[in-house]
Design goal:
The first copy, chain A, is α/β, with parallel strands linked by helices. The first copy, chain A, has three domains: 47 residues, Single alpha-helices involved in coiled-coils or other helix-helix interfaces (Up-down Bundle); 215 residues, P-loop containing nucleotide triphosphate hydrolases (Rossmann fold); 45 residues, no CATH class. Chain A contains 13 helices and seven strands.
């Protein structure tokens, strides 16, 4: 399809065109890449929509992420909002697996006309995960979705990546007592705008409340960020299966977003993210020179020589750089 | 002085040669750099000493860092250990200031024959802070110091930097109640092997105990790292002015270090740090191409175009990279 026509159809909300466009940005082929760049340029230039709310969501397997997205997404659709769900999964590049490959995990939402669920690609180059994901987010935004949920499993740098392409970052946790509480990845609390303790129902209700109080306490130990009004970041309990706490959580997200819009943090953050990704792309492009097989071999050889005490990092780096010149 | 002779004198523990060598690695002049590289190579090849214990110490102004270093350092010297104190201060490159410039802050320790205090340089290139600091650490180790304390103020990436060049990382805190507790920089708890709450004396004793308990609780919420035996990372109270808790803290540091030596984490971590710095040096060398004034101007221009929505990060990055080729 011609790029111009594709852009028109996406802007008009055509789902098949959106899916084809996401497939295009996911492709590693050079001609596809050129088309994708042109398409995104075209859509950015239109830019006549109010920005969507991009919500990042992290949580380890077992916390009930799919159930949460299903219930939360259905609630939003029930309020007349259009919801897109994307997944960022750097591990799929290695495992060939896909965290959203099975749409049956979100049965209701996948049949909902106002929702769009995009599984993460089964295979892809590791280095391109960030670029591909934020381009898919931009495409969904151009297609007029009001809320874009970006799901990530807690693997490697994926949370940072998702936090840098979304407006709000949620951490979903399961209730846990005592030693089980050690599950939060170091550094993740620094990124969370809200912590939601799921499964606050049945036998787990009391544990969820206690877990929530523990994390509220831990959040208070962290330094206040300029982008947070009083009371944020905050921890709350929800139950995806009983569909409780979801409306209250959404109210808080809206209040936070509203505050950030009024104070300029929302737009400022978007501009900052755009600069960030531009600089990252340039840096990654430069560093890609080290990915050539012969350069990798030389890096590995020198790294082991340094690790073994045979030479210094400084001297070995100078040797490597002279080879790259 | 000839490099060979300088290496001999440093290895023999000559302080003037050590100071001259550190001045050499701090210099930005190309001929000094070449001499520094050769000297470090020479000292690495000797490598006939047991490794020193390198301790990183972070804490914001006002927690009593100098007083702690003075009391802790004097205690170590009293046990027959030789102690070097270095400072990593990326801010000094901008401000021209120096966190250890005034040795009078450590009056006793600066007169102690078994201690060596090196102020951070008043001016330096920002990019070279990490390399210069780890080279100074290597020089002190070659000079036979048993314990090397690397002090940092909590500015920017300085904690990560110090954690990557030391074997233990300590976070020094002051007692605080209620809202004041929000002072810990996000992400720093992930690096700390021990949190020491200072000023556990007089009126502040009870507050210090409570602060310590709060942080013990927060540390338990974080995931256990493989390099930690049971009970670590841990929080303890100390009083630098009353000189209490210091021996207990040192016992814990020794126990942790002993465990890591026996399990191989100590040596493994050193090798990992060497690989890390080698790869960092190569990457920084490549990225230094962006530091040329005309490249910086072009980066800034394109970043603003992207931030303003005029183009995409992807397209702008391609433009920049084609210019760098």
């Amino acid at each position: 399809m011609e790029i111009e026509a594709m852009a028109e159809k996406i802007a008009a909300g055509d789902r098949r065109s959106l899916s084809r466009a996401i497939t295009l940005v996911e492709s590693g082929r050079a001609d596809h890449r050129a088309q994708a760049v042109a398409l995104l340029e075209r859509l950015v230039q239109r830019n006549d929509r109010a920005p969507a709310l991009r919500i990042g969501l992290s949580g380890t397997p077992g916390v009930g992420k799919s159930t949460f997205i299903e219930a939360f997404g259905m609630m939003l659709c029930g309020r007349g909002l259009r919801v897109a769900v994307l997944a960022v999964d750097p591990s799929s590049a290695r495992s060939g697996g896909s965290i959203l490959g099975d749409k049956t995990r979100m049965e209701q939402l996948s049949r909902e006309p106002n929702a769009y669920i995009r599984p993460s690609p089964a295979q892809s180059q590791l280095g391109g995960v960030a670029r591909r994901s934020r381009e898919a987010v931009a495409l969904c935004e151009a297609a007029g979705f009001d809320v874009i949920l970006v799901e990530t499993v807690g693997v490697g740098q994926s949370e940072t990546m998702v936090a840098e392409m979304t407006d709000l970052f949620l951490l979903l946790l399961a209730p846990a007592g005592g030693d089980e509480l050690q599950g939060v990845k170091r550094g993740i609390m620094e990124m969370a705008d809200m912590i939601l303790v799921n499964k606050a129902d049945g036998d787990l209700r009391a544990t969820a409340t206690r877990t929530c109080a523990d994390y509220s306490g831990a959040l208070r130990l962290l330094r206040k960020r300029p982008q947070d009004p009083d009371g944020f970041p905050k921890a709350m309990t929800v139950s995806a299966v009983e569909e409780t706490g979801l409306a209250a959580a959404w109210d808080e997200m809206q209040a936070l977003t509203e505050w950030r819009r009024e104070t300029g943090f929302f737009e400022g953050r978007r501009a900052e993210q755009a600069r960030y990704w531009f600089r990252e792309d340039v840096r990654n492009g430069l560093l890609a020179r080290l990915d050539a097989p012969e350069m990798q071999a030389e890096m590995d050889r020198l790294a082991e020589e340094v690790a073994g005490g045979g030479t210094t990092a400084t001297a070995a780096a100078e040797e490597m750089l002279s080879r790259l010149r």
